[in-house]
Design brief:
2 copies of one chain form a homodimer. By secondary structure, chain A is α/β, with parallel strands linked by helices. Chain A has helices at 37-54, 93-98, 110-122, 180-183, 185-198, 203-211, 218-224, 228-252, 268-281, 301-308, and strands at 2-7, 11-17, 23-30, 64-69, 72-74, 79-83, 88-91, 105-109, 128-134, 138-144, 147-149, 256-260, 291-294. The first copy, chain A, is built from 10 helices and 13 strands. The interface between A and B is large, with 54 and 54 residues.
Chain lengths: 312, 312
């Protein structure tokens, strides 16, 4: 049994995870930034103990604790090298947590944790696996030789920050033309709003008015209802997503790619045109191809991946 | 002592390589395509024996033979899965070579071999290393955990075929907007010709007339001589190169990237503006950065890498 912790800028989510990756109990507490990291670790420890106790267990039943957090993580030394979200820099999170629990404790980047979670549940033990999340941003994680790969400094796997459009629109990261600026939910909402303005009679306007806002589902819902402008938005968005995936495939030829994040709930409606595009545009035309599928763990992926990353 | 073979569509180059990667003898023979792969292997074997004999050695002194060849290679099974250049498909090259020499024989993709050669000579034994070659195309190789990474099907590492410009110009691979279509020597020559037409008074026209043709050095030579149009071509070309490198860095955060191929002979004149661009545009702003440098082996990289790939 393991503890998986998803340490976010807003909430600390803790889960009790079985050896085969099932969350049997979970809870959360606010991160309450900004505050000293020692207080955050203290809360992580308390919440872990509480959840374990609620299941009638003690911390002695726990084989390891995994912590996923945003930013650049030095897993080898158990240190958050830099996290803008958490306002941490060279923070020895593992050493601090060890003061509470003397057991294997692992820390890794949150996208890497989510990738590892999806890998452990949906990866079929393949050697090479990529996880892409289409959320507020475009995140990702790389599994090579069954292990998370994050570069020599822990800052690798920033798959959302490959260039999609040279000299394209500004990205949050400070660069321009990043995949994330075209393929995130944020980008889709922007693309939807632009189309709504251009086509005020489209179903998107109707749907957004009913929902009270434009979200990542607006264009998809309109497209499914036969709206031409909505269909155009979705088609263009899927092309952006798939075009970035072609780069990823041409580089890695991973055995599997799993697509997660909010948009992935569109399922086959999203996946099938992505597959068609990749099939048509990828470099490899003669050999066995990467299998593309939709994630299944959603928000649990980070907790499951962090927990199982302690498993030897 | 090892034999390294660079099996190309035009020539078979064979080198006798020391344990520390020095070529002490080499030779070549035409590939004479199309012909049966058994005849090609027979020529590879004969040339190997000849070179070894010329050094006063016998094949008993050779610890292994490495073969680099274009296309998708199934290294594990010693098979050329598919090579357009060599007109090979599921060709058991290693098994055939074993008929001549009963010793370790390894086959790998030629760009991977070159990457491994540069890695072994210039890689300082780092864990993660990327080699990029700016030649007729843009090629590359990935070294992770000190080993060549080429995906589950052997077709990975096609670094020239990441998208640089969504919906950009056609690439040889059938896709559009690939990095290769903007950053190869072929692309630079096209960019130079376009600028020469636009600015008939530029030094580029003068230099090309003297050389009898436009080549990858034309714009660089003009730029160095203070030609404004030449400088514009070089500046734009370097931006294309560097923009693709930013994607590579954001994905891999490799400890080292080495840039080879014909254009790399421009040395610091190429490297320094690339470093500036990457520094400004890459995602990682807080942690140790990837070291960029220029290759040193040029055409020998493939032979050295193939040879040393047999070394256990």
């Amino acid at each position: 049994m393991y503890i998986g912790i998803d340490l976010g800028g807003t909430n600390i989510a803790v889960g009790l995870v079985t050896d085969d990756g099932k969350i049997i109990k979970s809870g959360s507490t606010p991160t309450l930034l900004p505050r000293d990291y020692k207080e955050i670790v203290s809360d992580m420890a308390k919440l872990s103990e509480k959840i374990v106790a609620e299941e009638g267990l003690t911390m002695a039943d726990i084989d390891g604790i995994g912590i996923g957090c945003p930013g650049s993580v030095d897993s080898r030394n158990g240190v958050v090298a830099f996290s803008n979200n958490l306002k941490m820099e060279h923070t020895p999170l593992v050493a601090e947590m060890k003061k509470y629990f003397n057991k294997p404790i692992n820390i890794l980047n949150d996208a890497d944790a989510a990738a590892y979670g999806e890998y452990m549940i949906n990866g079929n033990n393949v050697d090479s696996f990529i996880f892409i999340t289409l959320g507020t941003g475009v995140g990702g994680g790389i599994i090579i030789n069954k292990k998370v790969y994050s570069g020599f400094n822990g800052a690798g796997g920033e798959l959302g920050h490959i260039t999609l459009v040279h000299n394209g629109i500004p990205c949050n990261c400070g660069n321009i033309g990043c995949w994330e600026a075209y393929a995130s939910v944020t980008a889709l909402i922007r693309q939807t709003k632009e189309a709504m303005e251009k086509y005020p009679d489209s179903k998107m306007n109707e749907i957004a008015a009913k929902d009270g806002k434009v979200n990542g589902r607006t264009a998809f819902a309109a497209a499914k209802a036969g709206d031409k402008a909505g269909n155009e938005v979705v088609k263009q968005y899927i092309e952006y997503v798939a075009s970035g995936l072609v780069s990823i495939i041409n580089i890695f030829q991973p055995e599997k790619i799993v697509i997660g994040g909010g948009i992935s709930r569109e399922g086959d409606y999203l996946l099938n045109p992505i597959k068609d595009y990749c099939n048509k545009h990828e470099y490899n035309k003669y050999l066995e191809k990467t299998e593309l599928s939709i994630a299944t763990l959603y928000n649990d992926a980070g907790i499951v991946g962090a927990a199982l990353s302690c498993k030897k």
